Amino acid sequence: MTIGYFSTTASFRIISMISNLNNAAPKMAELGAGSMLLGDPAFNYQEHELNERLKRLYPAVNEEETPLPRSWSPKDKYSYIGLSQNNLRVHYKGHGKNHKDAASVRATHPIPAACGIYYFEVKIVSKGRDGYMGIGLSAQGVNMNRLPGWDKHSYGYHGDDGHSFCSSGTGQPYGPTFTTGDVIGCCVNLINNTCFYTKNGISLGVAFTDLPPNLYPTVGLQTPGEIVDANFGQQPFVFDIEDYMSEWRAKIHGMIARFPIGERLGEWQAVLQNMVSTYLVHHGYCATATAFARATETLIQEDQTSIKNRQRIQKLVLAGRVGEAIEATQQLYPGLLEHNSNLLFMLKCRQFVEMVNGTDSEVRCFSVRSPKSQDSYPGSPSLSPRHGATNPHLHSAGADSPTCSNGVTPPNKNKSHNKYPGVSSASSSSSSSPSSVNYSESNSTDSTKSQPHSGTSNQETRCVARQGFLLNLTWVLCSDSEMEIEAEHYTNGVAENSSTRIMNGTYKHQEILQAEDDSCASRQLCGGNQAATERMIQFGRELQGLNEQLCREYGKNATHKKMLQDAFSLLAYSDPWNCPVGQQLDPMQRENICSALNSAILESQNLPKQPPLMLAVGQATECVQLMARVRSGSCSFARVDSFLH
Amino acid sequence: AYCLLTSHIEVTATSRHYVDRLFDPDPQKVLQGVIDMKNAVIGNNKQKANLIVLGAVPRLLYLLQQGSSSSELRAECAVVLGSLAMGTENNIKSLVDCHIIPALLQGRCMLTVCVTPCQDPTVIPHLMSLLSRSQRTQEYITQIFSHCCKTPEHQTVLFNHGAIQNIAPLLISPSYKVRMQALKCFSVLAYENTQVSMTLVNVLVDEELLSQVFVRMMQRDQPIDMQLTAAKCLTYMCRAGAIRTDDSCIVLKTLPCLVRMCSKERLLEERVEGAETLAYLMEPDVELQRIASVTDHLVAMLADYFKYPSSVSAITDIKRLDHDLKHAHELRQAAFKLYASLGSNDEDIRKKITETENMMDRIVSGLSESSVKVRLAAVRCLHSLSRSVQQLRTSFHDHAVWKPLMKLLQNAPDEVLVMASSTLCNLLLEFSPSKEPILESGVIELLCSLTQSDSPALRVNGIWALMNMAFQADQKVKGEIVRALGTEQLFRLLSDPDSNVLMKTLGLLRNLLSTRPHIDQVMSSHGKQIMQAVTLILEGEHSIEVKEQTLCILANIADGNTAKELIMTNDDILQKIKYYMAHSNVKLQLAATFCISNLIWNEEDGSQERQDKLRELGFVDILHKLTQASDPNLCDRAKTAMQQYLA
């Protein structure tokens, strides 16, 4: 990193250089997945498409606060309107004698301002007798016995004459007429409160300006036989709305980038330098922080030893050596964990997971492998937390110097890595090539595989060990009187599984295990060591005990229970790494607990538990959400994460 | 070096001093001298000329090529040479005469020299080979190509040297400047060039079709310059026939992009280019015209092009006024061009255009603007609108557009004349209320002079206008036309190499030979020549349309009282008519039968004799056969003719 950069430029980009937000993006895949197996598969597919598209088009919309329109409302329509096809098709069923027979329907929800730019399309399935169709917008409560555009707070584009109606009974010449087969689109720009229409993918230009907020997509029909279909995102749009959005995104980003700071330049610099410095200190980048402080002539609040201590503990957690991390914390910050039993419990749970992983020192000491080499995990997460998608640069940095993404290379780590270049030839050769980091990760986690103990007898031992362990697990679960319901839940997985295994006998077992070994060549429970497995089971009991103790002291804690269940359920699967709860074993999962521990230590030293940089990011995010609530459409294109690269 | 000194240029002592310092033995002083020279020549064309005359160029080249020169000195020399090249055409010529190009190609810096078209064929392969060198060379060399490529021959030369394959990968260069220059290069290469365009559509860049790369470059968040140039590339490829006009990349991407370029938000230069490119894109395609006419209020948007300089800019900001003034002509001509293109086929669009605020007034004043470019564009627009019957009857007459049009015809360059005379043709159609006042303004002489032009387009328009004028005209007008044109010229036009001219001349003849008294009068004075010409055409190698028109003239002649005899006494012609009655083409059969029918018509003097004569010649048999013809029109016509014999 060039220090000079910070001293000359006052820009948001600074965040992206050092950043990596911890608040990992919520997993998006689940939405709607539960209903996927029910009902009409075609409909579910469309539903899925809709969710995906809406999410992509309107990422700033919080649907819990402001749901998006997804269909016409069966409640908010005139009686001459009939709905079908999941409330997307509208047909006229009145007499259609004159304009008094006009009828409209609104969508289920108004257009949220946080959309920034909103778009829907209507396909004319049939123009019916006269093709008196109106497409547009209206506020809640506007008379539905009318075509959109005729009344106050109502706006429409009519097919018979191509005129636009802006809250008035007389239209203005606007666009071409439209009829059967045409696709009419309506786009609301909530940044400048205008609206334009499209016909068959061609923009017809602005129709309305100064639109009020909270308008509903609306269509109106007036003669028999008229049928239209709406597309709120169920299908790809004919008009390239995303291209139009990209223009506004660029406009707003340009506005932010060119925002004048003028006279206050010096002030900004100091603030930014302080932000960078505190961020570095917070995460324990001791050397970088010192270098930065020297170059910018600023002071660091915390003393060196304290930073180094925190750094050490964080490294232990991130390396999966949670037991050691707990010890170190207890030694360096006596009383801290004792006063923070939640944190302790979290750490212990993590320790258990790491035991399963075979990385915690309590089980590693049983391993044939030199304990020293355990540091050289190319796959262990870097100190600085990642956010969202994995960044190839970070990965490559991690491969070279596993614990530090910012280029501060702790010499001892590197040495230990170099000392054992031949532990696994694959891992050492691939760790230098960033493109194959993932490969080396899985490979090196299980260096034991390359040790000469994979004979049949060994497999048998392991097999027995596992059986015993599984029985133990069942015992652990069953002995928990509070977990009856859960035990039932587990019957499907654990109990049945284990019983069938026992009944199947050893011979078949071997086959199964053999097959498993082939398919998932690398990883074994607790590094495949029996003693380690026993230690783990013992630890599991202790943990269970701790939980009960905490329950007695502080009452039941659902979070703890969930944590414990998740951790224990790992043992229910023959291959914990490829099971529904296997996510826990991912080294990335260490990051949360690591930062929680770090924050707790800082808090105990009367230092801010969050770096100001993260506070600023949090505030900015909050501001953008606030903009959505006060109906400022530009919030859609001023997303904080688009400035964090 | 001093021998180059010529007397007509004033050489000052200081100029000489600069050159002298280039010969100093101390390299440090030479460097300082070159730097001083650099500062002295910037923006000073006179100084540049002086230094060139004093022989600075060979010395600078020498220093540039010397291995012993420091890189700093060489760079400065290159900069000075670049600066010298930024001057007048003469300066550039002097530089090229000194073999500057090969020398510069060895170095890294060359940009401004290359504004001159490359004449040396060895330069191009060398430049191509330099493309891989660095992003700088890529940027400059593609820029050089864009600058130099001015003619179809240039395009072919670059094409044959593999320009497409070499430049295509630059479109995805990480450098914006390189991408942009490569894109510009393609727009220059593809312009009106089918070979290049056809090749371009099949080029893949990183497994993506080039047209898709261009579409991506037109995305709305891309820089305007890039959007516009990418749209130009696709436009040229489309016009060259490499992309269909209904392809979605044209309809949904290129066309809307160009319409956006016309919007008020864009810079004046961009609006001019956008409008011109759009006009070019949709010129031949009515569907694109229809789409454009409803896109983003384009027709109304263009009205804004006429509002420069605006009254606001005059008061508030002198700089802005200057800027507006500079672009005002360009804006107006671009808008006229686009209106012309929009309205060239569709009646509804023409109506929409003429209903735009002050449109006709704007055209009228555009016709008399000082700028030829604006006049041409205005008359093109007027021409496009004049294809509408409704507009001819209403707005054209209301605004007396014929007046400025007539004025324009008096003294204009050929390209303006072609458009103006073509417009005049439409204004002279019989239903046009402007026809009368135009006739009275003495247009006949003017049109007759056009028929003597070297340009076939002008000859066609001249004779076409006369033809329209003669349609259902009174005897006075017809006489005037014949007198003004002169029989000699009329018959010269009947042997015109351009078949359009021939067709319209025959049309004129046919219009002159209508209504009986007119026929007899014209035939009595020019009968002999006309019959000769008709014979000649019927015997010659001509299209069906020409022969049909000629037979129609004969039919008109046969309708005259005295004129009939010219045919009846001409056995040669009668044989020809007989021949065409049995022709394989129905149109010709019909026209020939019509002619006979006129000759044997009962109620006229001497009809009996003519009937007898024609029966003798075997016409009745032919007519009888034709009553069995499968074509109903021909069958009817033959039956009507047969009835003359029965009565």
Automatic annotation (TrEMBL), chain A:
Residues 370-383, 402-413, 448-460 have a biased composition (Polar residues). Residues 306-363 form the CTLH domain. InterPro entries: B30.2/SPRY, B30.2/SPRY_sf, ConA-like_dom_sf, CRA_dom, CTLH/CRA, CTLH_C, LisH, SPRY_dom. Coiled coil: none annotated. Residues 424-447 have a biased composition (Low complexity). Residues 50-237 form the B30.2/SPRY domain. Residues 369-460 are annotated as: Disordered. PROSITE patterns: B302_SPRY, CTLH, LISH. Belongs to the RANBP9/10 family. This is Ran-binding protein 10. It comes from Oncorhynchus tshawytscha (Chinook salmon).
TrEMBL record, chain B:
It comes from the Eukaryota. Pfam families: Arm (PF00514). The keyword Repeat applies. SUPFAM superfamilies: ARM repeat. GO terms for biological process: proteasome-mediated ubiquitin-dependent protein catabolic process. It is found in: Cytoplasm; Nucleus. Keywords: Cytoplasm, Nucleus, Repeat. One of its GO terms (cellular component) is GID complex. Its main location: cytoplasm. ARM repeats lie at residues 55-91, 485-527. This is Armadillo repeat-containing protein 8.
